[in-house]
Q: What sequence folds into this?
């Protein structure tokens, strides 16, 4: 794939035609390399991974994991947040666990995240403030630690990590995720470096409030 920005300098229909031409070339290359891939995908999908990531254009999950179409089930939003009551993320998680039977759930944040940077500031942004509040809640909980970090970039990186930890904890507090973990599903936290292209595993500390969210099966 070309990285030449001039490829995308067209406007209107020329832009879409360029994209479609690139799509056809990509499909042809993949069909040549793996003739059975697209026919198999037309029948069903069997991803092993549920990826919960940021909408940022620099964090393309399938590409950075070097995987093929059909290998990752994806939910993305600004700053990879899993707020209580968000029907979109809850529906994706349920479908991935109960219907697709994924074996791994990955929550991935990334350095230089615009949502996290916004949460560190105090500028009014409009409608998105309602969403950014979820990250500001994480910031408020860890204010003492974050205030000891003088470098703004390092402070942002640390809040990225703390946000991933918070979202992993939110995930593990869900009843269907708890059930999935008991049958072997693994939950992971990753942080991706947009400046390096490398993803690193994040150590997830024990949730101090975990016991309050344990859901026990009702005896039959």
A:
């Amino acid at each position: 794939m070309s990285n030449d920005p001039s490829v995308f300098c067209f406007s209107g229909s020329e832009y879409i035609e360029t994209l479609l031409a690139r799509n056809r070339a990509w499909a042809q290359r993949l069909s040549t390399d793996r003739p059975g891939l697209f026919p198999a995908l037309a029948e069903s999908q069997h991803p092993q991974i549920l990826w919960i990531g940021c909408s940022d254009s620099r964090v393309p999950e399938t590409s950075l994991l070097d995987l093929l179409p059909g290998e990752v089930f994806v939910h993305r939003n600004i700053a990879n947040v899993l707020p209580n009551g968000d029907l979109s993320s809850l529906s994706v998680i349920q479908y991935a666990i109960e219907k697709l039977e994924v074996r791994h759930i990955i929550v991935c944040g990334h350095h230089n995240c615009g949502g996290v940077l916004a949460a560190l500031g105090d500028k009014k942004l409009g409608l998105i403030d309602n969403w950014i509040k979820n990250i500001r809640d994480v910031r408020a909980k860890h204010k003492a630690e974050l205030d000891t970090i003088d470098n703004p970039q390092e402070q942002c990186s640390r809040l990225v990590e703390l946000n991933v930890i918070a979202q992993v904890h939110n995930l593990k507090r869900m009843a269907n995720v708890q059930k999935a973990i008991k049958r072997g599903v693994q939950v992971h936290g990753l942080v991706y470096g947009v400046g390096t292209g490398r993803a690193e595993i994040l150590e997830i500390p024990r949730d101090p409030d975990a016991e309050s969210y344990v859901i026990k099966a009702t005896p039959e």
